[in-house]
Automatic annotation (TrEMBL):
One of its GO terms (biological process) is rhamnose catabolic process. Pfam families: AP_endonuc_2. This is Probable sugar isomerase. The lineage of its organism: Bacteria, Bacillati, Actinomycetota, Actinomycetes, Kitasatosporales. It comes from Streptomyces fradiae. Coiled coil: none annotated. Residues 50-250 form the Xylose isomerase-like TIM barrel domain.
Length: 389
């Protein structure tokens, strides 16, 4: 019989975390972007950095791309370049929020010509998926209104549904559409996909290839994200996560940094409800920007935080928990969770990495690798990648 530690390690071996290409590039606040030496100038260089994260964590074989930030002439060549480094290209993220045309929205815009342009971009993203072998199209819409009366809320939903239906039709057999929601920003009065319920309703109508993606930074303070996760898993509609951490709004900080307990609670619902099984096809993606911290180590730290939360969730004694729940023993049920949360899983993760032929301390191994110094020396000239580049 497997002991608990072995069972936890076996489950952890099945989990992968997808890293975002934009996490390797420069980003900032509306006030300032602090450039760092060695930051990638091209999608190709972003893949090189992603390969380093995979080399030291062993669990990040996929990289999400963002179009047009990662636009290249030959996507098949980009996929081959990734494969040479042990990587695959993951979700294709669309961008219908940076053009002047989108002042009043994209797929919900009142003008049909603008909607056509936005849908054209989404269809182009599916063409790119065909070339890269990506299976996930991740859609986040900045659409919404700023003022009461600005536009017809229901008409905007109709336009959204029509656009999604057209994109859904274009998806291949193995491809799916992941619809992200966000409470506010950049729109401040209404947002066209503001919450999981709206996303869920559209996905339900579209069909089985449409699922909801939960960005952990996109809720009102106090929202129980773990409830949403449990509900969507039960319905087979949880497509994946955009993991990050927040104090105020969509802060895009390192996942698990501000509230590791929340991350544990989310991962408890995931592990308890079968979300870790490959068949569940839940994409554990990061959606983060590293503005003041070193980027590659920040991605490594984030991956480790996800692994630690997952390991703790896997340690929950589900039998004891179920027994306490049946008996209505509130304190014992709560203790089953807290015991697992309060376990130091770092020794177990070190052991797991050693079993997989990895260095037990990924951050130290990365620091000793010389990669940071190498990219700082070699990546000179040209323009560093960032939002819009
Ligand atoms: C925006 O707030 C969403 O989180 C998006 O998923 C994402 O940050 C953006 O599209 C970068 O790809
Ligand atoms: Zn996101
Ligand atoms: Zn976001």
């Amino acid at each position: 019989m497997l002991d608990v530690r072995d069972a936890v390690k076996a489950a952890l071996k099945t989990q992968t975390v997808e890293t975002p290409s934009w996490g390797y590039g420069n980003s900032g606040t509306r006030f300032k972007v602090f450039a760092q030496p060695g930051v990638p100038r091209t999608p190709w260089e972003k893949l090189e950095d992603a390969a380093k994260v995979h080399e030291f964590t062993g669990v990040t074989p996929k990289v999400s791309l963002h179009i047009p930030w990662d636009r290249v002439d030959d996507y098949t060549a980009l996929a081959a370049y990734a494969a040479e480094r042990g990587l695959r290209l993951g979700a294709i993220n669309s961008n219908t929020f940076q053009d002047d045309d989108y002042r009043l929205g994209s797929v919900c815009h009142p003008d049909a010509k603008v909607r056509r342009r936005a849908v054209g971009h989404l269809l182009e993203c599916v063409d790119i998926m065909d070339a890269t072998g990506s299976t996930d199209l991740k859609l986040w819409f900045a659409d919404g209104t700023n003022y009461p009366g600005q536009d017809d809320v229901v008409a905007r939903q109709d336009r959204l549904a029509a656009a999604l239906a057209e994109v859904y039709e274009r998806l291949g057999e193995e491809q799916r559409l992941l619809l992200e929601y966000k409470l506010f920003e950049p729109a401040f009065y209404t947002t066209d996909v503001p919450d999981w319920g709206t996303s869920y309703a559209h996905c339900l109508k579209l069909g089985p290839k449409a699922q909801v993606v939960v960005d952990t930074g996109h809720h009102a303070p106090g929202t129980s994200i773990e409830f949403i996760v449990a509900f969507l898993l039960r319905e087979g509609k949880l497509g994946g996560f955009d993991f990050n951490s927040r104090f105020y709004a969509d802060d895009d900080l390192m996942v698990g940094s501000s509230d590791p307990f929340q991350l544990f609670r989310i991962m408890h619902e995931v592990t308890k409800n079968g979300g870790l099984a490959p068949a569940a096809n839940v994409a554990f993606m990061l959606d983060q920007c590293h503005n003041i911290e070193a980027k590659i180590p920040a991605v490594i730290r984030s991956v480790m935080n996800v692994q630690e939360a997952t390991a703790k969730a896997l340690l929950v004694d589900l039998d004891a928990l179920a027994a306490a729940q049946r008996e209505g023993d509130v304190l014992a049920a709560n203790a089953a969770l807290m015991d697992a949360y309060n376990t130091d899983v770092r020794p177990l993760l070190r052991e797991l990495r050693e079993e997989q032929g990895l260095a037990p301390e990924p951050l130290a191994a990365y620091a000793a690798s010389g990669w940071r110094e190498r990219i700082a020396t070699e990546r000179v000239g040209g323009e560093q990648a960032g939002w819009g580049a």
